[in-house]
């Protein structure tokens, strides 16, 4: 609601002398909301295969992926973009590794697709070594 109010203020008074201040407030609030989503995605990832909170099926890795992807859709220009993308790659990988045989191949392929997206967007990432290792393992798994 606060985001909408700040945006309305900017829309109603585009030439206000408070425009820069309101814009800064809007960005700070968005960053806090993204950080909240990032922390939720991290929590799901860290819960891993724990099934105690998965009452209706699914698992925590899937929840981590969905939470991170939703945050990226809602706030595509966030400063946490790289971290959300890497968390998604890690969660897809863990989901594939822990899959039943009938779903594993498709999930390894999805992880490889995620890897290419990450590599294209963040070729100089500090996480590139880990991403490359994930890619190599996934490639070996779909070759077998």
Layout of strands and helices, then pairs:
Blueprint (H helix, E strand, L loop, with lengths): L1 H11 L6 H29 L12 H15 L6 H17 L3 H21 L6 H16 L1
Summary keywords:
single chain; 144 residues; mainly alpha; 6 helices; 0% strand
Provide a compact summary of the structure.
By secondary structure, the protein is mainly alpha-helical.
Give an overview of the whole structure.
By secondary structure, the protein is mainly alpha-helical. 76% of the residues lie in helices and 0% in strands. It has 6 helices and no strands. It has helices at 2-12, 19-47, 60-74, 81-97, 101-121, 128-143. Helix 3 packs antiparallel against helix 4 (81-97) and helix 5 (101-121) runs antiparallel to helix 6. The longest helix is centred in the first third of the chain and has 29 residues, at 19-47. The protein is elongated, with a radius of gyration of 19 Å. The model has no long low-confidence stretch (mean pLDDT 91).
Put simply, the count of helices is 6
Point out poorly predicted stretches: none
Order of helices and strands: HHHHHH
- Judged by helices, strands and strand pairing, the structural class is mainly alpha
The total beta strand count reads 0
> Whole-number radius of gyration?
19 Å
Distance between the ends: 51 Å
Q: Roughly what fraction of the amino acids lie in strands? A: under 5%
Oligomer: single chain
Helicity, in percent?
A: over 70%
Q: State mean pLDDT (0 to 100 scale).
A: 91
Largest sheet: none
What overall geometry do the principal axes of the alpha carbons give? elongated
């Amino acid at each position: 609601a606060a985001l909408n109010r700040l945006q309305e203020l900017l829309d109603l008074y585009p030439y206000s002398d408070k425009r820069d201040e309101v814009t800064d407030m809007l960005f700070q609030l968005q960053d806090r909301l993204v950080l909240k989503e990032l922390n939720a995605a991290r929590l799901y990832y860290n819960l891993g295969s724990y099934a105690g909170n998965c009452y209706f099926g699914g698992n925590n890795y899937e929840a981590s992926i969905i939470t991170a992807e939703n945050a990226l859709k809602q706030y595509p220009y966030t400063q946490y973009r790289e971290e959300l993308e890497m968390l998604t790659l890690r969660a897809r990988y863990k989901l594939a590794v822990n899959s039943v045989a009938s779903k594993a191949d498709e999930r390894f392929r999805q992880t490889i697709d995620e890897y290419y997206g990450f590599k294209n967007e963040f070729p100089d990432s500090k996480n590139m070594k880990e991403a490359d290792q994930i890619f190599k393992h996934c490639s070996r798994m779909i070759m077998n």
